[in-house]
Amino acid sequence: xxxxxxxxxxxxxxxxxxxxxxxxxxxxxxxAPEPALDGKVPEDSDMRGQFGxxxxxxVDKANQLLDHFSDILIKRGIKVDRPDPINFxxxxxxxxxxxxxxxxxxxxxDVLLTVGNEILEATMSYRCRWFEYLCYRPLLKxxxxxxxxxxxESAPKPRLTDDDYRKDYLSDKIGIQKRLEWxxxxxxxxxxxxxxxxxxxxxxxxxxxxxxxxxxxxxKGIDWIKRHY
Length: 229
Hints:
The protein is of the alpha/beta class. The protein contains 6 helices and 11 strands. It has helices at residues 35-38, 56-75, 108-111, 137-146, 175-184, 219-228; strands at residues 19-21, 29-30, 52-53, 79-81, 92-93, 98-99, 112-115, 118-121, 151-154, 202-205, 208-211. The strands form 5 sheets. Strands 7-8-9 form a 3-stranded mixed β-sheet. A two-stranded parallel ribbon has the order 1-4. The radius of gyration is 18 Å and the shape is globular.
């Protein structure tokens, strides 16, 4: 057990920051096409039709920004932890699906939600991000070992079968205008087959949480969060 004393306790987005996780861009990939992801990629984006490792130049520039941000925080006396990237450029699968690549570990706030002394791993709704939590497990283990009051929780892992997504949502016949109308009506690419949510869709106001229903969080996900807390 580390001799370093770590206390996990955070209730909102505005208290003075003492300890934070800043992501890394190492090995980041453009994910292969999949139902949940495609709905968020603009039709004129260079990412369409491509997948695999991002260019070294793009990764280096992203890491330069993340490292600089970390340095600023450290100079202000804030403790900064970084995740352990895994090999994102590999096929992953479950009994229900297979995807050609993963994503990365640049945005920890998508994966982890801290409410009080609990850090919760979100379900995620992208197949390419199903294993992203592994990048943060070494840190969570360290926090758990250091703080006897820390709770490490994980929301139920979704199966992310085809039933989780609307089959015709991305049809070229639908067009942008129709999709905008659907968005206005809260009709997104994900169905209500099982709870889905990203931690980044949640704002913390003490014990009150504001959760956004959108492309990465469904109503069942919101209900699960409400029941959990």
